[in-house]
Amino acid sequence: MVEIVPSILSADFSRLGEEIGRVERAGVRMLHVDIMDGHFVPNLTLGPPVVKSIRRITKLTLDVHLMITDPDRFAPMFIEAGADQVSVHSEACPHLDRTLRLIQSEGARAGVVLNPATPIQVLDEVLEVADYVLVMSVNPGFEAQTFIPNVLRKVRGLDFRRRELGLQLPIEIDGGISLDNAGEVVRAGCDWIVAGSSIFHSADPAATVARMQQIAREAQAVHV
What pTM did the predictor assign? Predict the structure, then answer.
């Protein structure tokens, strides 16, 4: 089953509980939380206290994406705050195997992230360690960017590689996802579809989620 994963970076933080409730009622099972440190990416977003607050108001899986330069230091803090799964950038982890195992040892699922220009070959030695892979379809750091179509080749390559290895390894995609391209990314092999502004900036976020779920189901039937 393909998961639609709303990214709360695009939500209205003055009424965040209400925003989360709207997508919960649409049937989503995961929330994506972007953490930026102003170093690895130019923007600065949330810290563990906000994640802790979100954890108190929802039982949804919290999918925390660390766009930071020192994930070994901060990942345990976000897990303690309530993250169920934490993804780290391969580009920020000189000891990627150790970082993924650290996250898992703290009780969370560990994901590895690839920027648009990073080849999938860098993951060859950790595909059997990671719990999921997140492919960035924009350059990280800002919301509401334009989808980079070339990343679909990367998704197809990862899909082929996991099938070759016999791995149950979800492929997540994040950046510029909308109703117009959701089907295309599912047909390429994506399992988790992160969408921010296309959901929370729409007139009816719940209806947008429902429509995206329908598109994903239809596309998955074609992909399979």
Answer: 0.95
CATH code of the domain in which 19 resides: 3.20.20.70
pLDDT at 144: 66
12 flagged as catalytic: no
Backbone dihedral region of 27: left (phi > 0), alpha (psi from -120 to 50 degrees) or beta?
Answer: left
Q: 37, 63, 174, 191: which is the annotated catalytic residue?
A: 174
DSSP annotation of 145 reads P
Cα–Cα distance measured from residue 115 to residue 46, given in angstroms and rounded to the nearest whole number:
20
Q: Does residue 49 sit within a domain?
A: yes
What is the tally of structural domains in the chain? 1
Least confidently predicted of 40-44, 49-53, 134-138: 40-44
Does the residue 157 lie in any domain? Answer: yes
Per-position b or e across 45-84, b if 16+ CB within 10 A of its CB: bbebebbeebeeebebbbbbbbbbbebeebbbebbebbbb
Is 131 tagged catalytic? no
- Tell me which of 34, 37, 63, 191 is the catalytic residue: 34
95 within some domain: yes
- Residue 140 is encoded by which pair of tokens? 């990280």
